[in-house]
Amino acid sequence: MSIENKTVLVTGSTDGVGRLVARRLADQGARVLIHGRDRPRGEQLLNEIRAATRGSAAFLPADFSSLAEVRRLADAVRQECDRLDVLINNAGIGSGGSAGKRETSQDGHELRFAVNYLAGFLLTRILLPLLLRGKPARIVNVASLGQQPIDFDDVMLTRGYSGSRAYAQSKLAQIMFTFDLARELDPETVTANSLHPATYMATTMVRQSGVTPMSTVEEGAEAILNLAVADELDQRSGEFYNGLRPSKANPQAYDGTARERLRVLSLQLTGLT
Fold it and tell me: Does the reported pTM lie above 0.85?
């Protein structure tokens, strides 16, 4: 799929694999909407893309620990463009390393569930009208092989908390949301797929988790770009990839009752009901 002159929003694109994905899309002639919390890093990437003279970019800052800021980001996107061709939900935080301290978002939700899942859920839902205008458009949710079934009696992990459990639960929630979107949307109009880009990439998030990197951001970027632009993915929706290969997610992702419970909860928590 030619990405030239098409508009792509890449969340979490001021650092790590998101930054590389944004650069490569711009190098292919796309108009890239850069998102992140760090304004200096965002503006640096913006200047790099403008200097390359192929694609174009805009930087839209937002802190995903606040649903109000997610809504402001969505408003900013709607001011920047009247259609969206690709949405890459890449922003996220890791397990928190050895500290293992439970944290909450500005809205009082468990932080990893809020940043890694709820923010992307809300953003995607608000931007769906722009994606529908971008026919054929694509949604790519950057998840993980690390997946933990959701305990609906304690979604916010007030008991038995661990950072790795919180991270893995948020990533499974992303995949469940992806499958729901695929069932809801006509694949000729918008496709939705998710992936584990690469194992322990050399990113700030991985290093902060106290893990030695095992793969490169280049590997991860290749896998994300595959779902975003590859011709082979045309009209293919509701799939989970491990790198460049189709794979299987945790069994809970295929449980329609569990996905419905998550959808109802997510609509309530984000105020979309």
Answer: yes
